[in-house]
Amino acid sequence: MKVRYILSFLLLFAAILNAQEVPDEDRYYFYVTIKNAENLVFSKNEDGTLSLSAPTSIEEAAIYNSYKIYEFERAFPGSRRSLLQEVYRVVTNRVELIGSLWRTFPEKYTKVDQFYPNETAFYPNDYGTTSPKKNLGKNLPLYDLDLINAAEAWGITRGSEKVVVGISDARVDSTNAEFKGRVTYLKYSNSTRGQQCAHGSNVAAISIARADNAYGRPGICSDCSVISNGYGSFKYIEELVAAGARVINASWATCKMGKFHKEIEKRINELYEDGIIIVAGAGNAKNCNGDDDFPPDDYAYPASFEKVISVTGVFSRFDSHLDSTFMDKDGYKSAQRLKDRHAKVHAIVNSGKVIPKYVKYAMQYNKSIDICAPAQSYLLGNELCDNEAVFGGATSSTAPYITGVIGLMWSVNYCLDAYETESILKLTSAAIDHLPGNERFKGQLGSGRVDAYKAVKMARDMKELMGNVNVSGRDFSRFHFRLKNSPYNITVENQTFRDSSSVAFTARHGIVLKPGTRLAPDKNGYVSLGIDPALPIGECEPKPPKKYESLYEEQTNRPVNTGNLYNFGVNYSSKNKQLAIRVKAASLLRMKGVYYTVKVFSPDKRLLKEKRFTLPEDGSMNIDVNSYEFSDVLITCGTRKENHRINTRAKGN
Fold it and tell me: How many domains does the chain have?
């Protein structure tokens, strides 16, 4: 017997009329085995969702009607097999619906499988010339995207507005199609020449540029929210955190973080514990100790702080030295830009072995490196600023790949903490130490090269109601790995954790150690495996930014606005005695739960009224300032401040 729907013509007609007005919402798809589901009767609401109107228990109805149900139907209506006749396709707005039913009625809801309809690799129309589809973007090959399996990751997600990415860098061009209306600016530079003009746009384009807009290149997390600020000081990172950024890209390096070096490291550790991650480029050539004649194994900052993800580069062009052979200036056979190799140029000896050349000028490699990413690609900022090279890069280009991938990971699982996020990046990275040409750098290239698809998939697997997180195929001798945020099953296979590596895995149902698993840490490492059925499941949402005391002296009346790029609009009605505040910046409109405060002052600087509002909502205040010639309005959002003046008598509105 089919599940019955109580449906009137009027309700159906209303649902059709309103269908185009309902905004897109998160949808989660499940196959659920349900005994006696034919006794459930659903009615259709005006908005097209379903309500359980004839349940088998009041408790069951309460669970169903606490969430939105978009579909509830037999998954295999034509099957004659009794087991398949009990399988239903359920589409809802929250995974908690299925989890609550499964826990409350385990004998009725016996099996749950989450699935993802039409999930295939997504190639945006600006992917570059290696795309299998027509490219409308820059006419250059983006081998970097191929190397990290970006299209496969985008088949899962292209980002979420609730994930706020911070860019600590030089100018990010506010007028360019990749960023216009997409970036909130705490500091803006109008530099038109050199790296002050180009560098920020280069970095931001890799990490967060618009995708599928027939222009330029796609950013890794093209649907994430973005805040931009200055660079070179931890003060700018502080401000990004206060403004709500959860992952911050710092593609800049210094030899020491000034007089607050120790305090900065302590604060970074605190941010990490609170789930905020800083990603930094490791540096290029001899950033520090430039007078010595040794290879670039310096420790630059902020990258080399323990709780900062330090990124160095690999190349992405050629599979084999046979594809890139050339004769160097000295007449020796060489190869260049080999895939997953750290050095740009290699000598080819008679045996066919490749040996890295010009190591003194290579990108940084050291024990603080956490992971590698592509070093070269199309540089949008260079083109916008008329710099000569539009294809290139170094470690400044590597960090934004990791920042973007973290944005994608949190888009599918916002519950991941910083430890788990870094663990997933490393567990899913591609091993590269063993590759010919990389032997010299063994143990100094981090965990390997990032794989965007595998990282995003594991992040999603961590939150599936009855999913499996697979850890396999690597041999780690260091790093701390922690997975504990709601995985149902964890399977470890053909995997080694030894020496100083440590493992802390917790699952709701089981941890399976399959053949090929070796757990052999030394006295500096450990293994902790546990089962906790009470681990929470469901979605996590952004919270208002935590307030941290600044490490720097407070600067009052600091102009944080971007010239004419106001984030808020202010209008006062003398007739209604009401002040209206409109949220203008597109990136702020995508923020949820972040507070902003509005203060109104008299001409003699007396505070007349103060009120707090929550993004992305507009605000309004009832206030009578008609007796003043003008009033000043200060809007504060994090460390962002905007001053507006309303000429009350002059406007007379």
Answer: 4
